[in-house]
Each structure stands twice: as C-alpha cells, then as structure tokens.
C-alpha cells in the first residue's frame, strides 16, 4: 500500500467506532493520576524547573514521593530556606549509592524521619533502584513491614547495602502476577536534558518498563514537554478540548527505539498512513500537533516515543 500524508484543518472530529483500538490513555492523567491507580512522583537529579504552585499541586496529587540520590539536594534547594515548606514537602524515600547526597541534606532528611536507603551497586542506575523500590512499596507487604520496623533503622532498614533492593524485588516478582497488579502512574521530574547519556538512558526506561514491568505508566515531565511511550497496534489518546487548547502545543512521533511503520494516525495536523519512520533516514514526524476535537489515534507497527509540548504556566488551572 502506498504511503499518504494528509494536512487537516485545525479542528476535526475523530470517529472512533471503526478504529481498532488496543490501548487507551488520557493525556491529563499523565500528570493527574486516576484515583484507581497507585501513583508516584519521582524526582531525578536535575534542577527542578517548573513553577512552584504547579510543583506543589503535582506533589499533592501523588501517593508516593521518591528522590533518586542527589535529587534530594535539588528538592532541598528548590524550597530555599523556608523551613515551613521543607517540612511540608518531605519525600517518602531517598535511594541510591548516596555519593551525590550532601551531608547537610542527608542529616536534615534523616532527622525528619525520611526513609533513606543506601544501595552501593554500580551495575544498576539510581533510576532502576527507584523503580524496584516503588514496586516493592506498593506490592510487597513484607517490604513495608521491613521498612516500618524501627529496630532496622540503624542497619539500612534491614536491606543489604550493595543490591538488597534488587534482591527483594526479584524475589517478589517470582510470585507477582503482573496482570493483577494495580497500575502505577509514575511521573518523573528530571532525567531529560543535562548529560546526553543520562537522557538516552531515561528514554530506554520507557521501553524497559513497558517490556518488563508493564504495570508502570511512566512519563517524563520537563519545563517544556511530556515524554512517554505509545504502545504498538493502536492507541487512542483522549483529552479535554479546553485542556488541549490551553496547555498543549506541538508534538513529535519519535522512532528512537527502532525504525518502524506508522500504519495510521487520525487527529494530527499532518496525518499519515503506511509511513515508514526512522531516525537514520530523517523521516520523523516532528512539529506536528493535535487537531482532533477530543482525541488522537496513533497506530504503529512497533512501540514509539511521543513528546507533547506543554505550557507549564497554564497547567495548574486544569489539575
């Protein structure tokens, strides 16, 4: 079949009755989790660069807050020297090899009873340590009992120093039925920008979690974008029209994992059919945008990354 590219008007109605929809997602729920899901705000070790009212709102919307090692410094600094704010916005966990965590910040959060877990292994990243921890927190009563036991406080909460989190996680997954696990909405601040190798690693985690722990719904939030994975074989992205009009700008379909075929899109300014896309060839749908009234349909042969431009100064009015 020949490829097509269609330029649409700025607003079109998308009929979904004849579309083969395998997956559904709501755009706003990437930031404002559904109440039926578990949710985590993960702060990675980059400057927190979103408006404070928005940060405070996002914090309140998530069940669990986790700092990856030196990200605790970022949170501490973001709240300036306002002790009232610092004590109000204490993370549930800090985890990593703790090489980036300043002594002052370590002592502050330890004094305020934040659970700090040291994991020295260099064969996994702080991101992976965080993800294993988050899964244990929601899915392992044994882990929660271990953490809550005050007798373990002086011994790294009873967790082996090198790779205890991974050992506990691997043991848990032996009996975990993924299809019965409550989904975990995971919004990550940071991870994109800064060192390029770390950015690439962050992108790989979208694929890794989709393959190995698909109960996670991971999205990265930057001052300019939401970045997440679109599953292959038909995904319907829903949104409120006013949310789209006010908070959303351009978007890009990014075949970062591998070259693939966009079988069909409906609801983009430039819809395509049977359209090969590849980073190597330069055929990438960038600077596109949503024009569907309340949804957009994307059907690809393989999983693909979607970035959506956001206007962070407007988001808080919709959360």
UniProtKB/TrEMBL annotation:
Species per Swiss-Prot/TrEMBL record: Saccharomyces cerevisiae (strain Lalvin EC1118 / Prise de mousse) (Baker's yeast)
Pathway: Cofactor biosynthesis; thiamine diphosphate biosynthesis; thiamine diphosphate from thiamine: step 1/1
GO BP: thiamine diphosphate biosynthetic process; thiamine metabolic process
GO molecular function: ATP binding; kinase activity; thiamine binding; thiamine diphosphokinase activity
Catalytic reaction list: thiamine + ATP = thiamine diphosphate + AMP + H(+)
Enzyme Commission (EC) number: 2.7.6.2
Keyword Methyltransferase attributed: no
Name this polypeptide is given: Thiamine pyrophosphokinase
PANTHER family from the UniProt entry: THIAMIN PYROPHOSPHOKINASE (PTHR13622), THIAMIN PYROPHOSPHOKINASE 1 (PTHR13622:SF8)
Keyword set, alphabetical order: ATP-binding, Kinase, Nucleotide-binding, Transferase
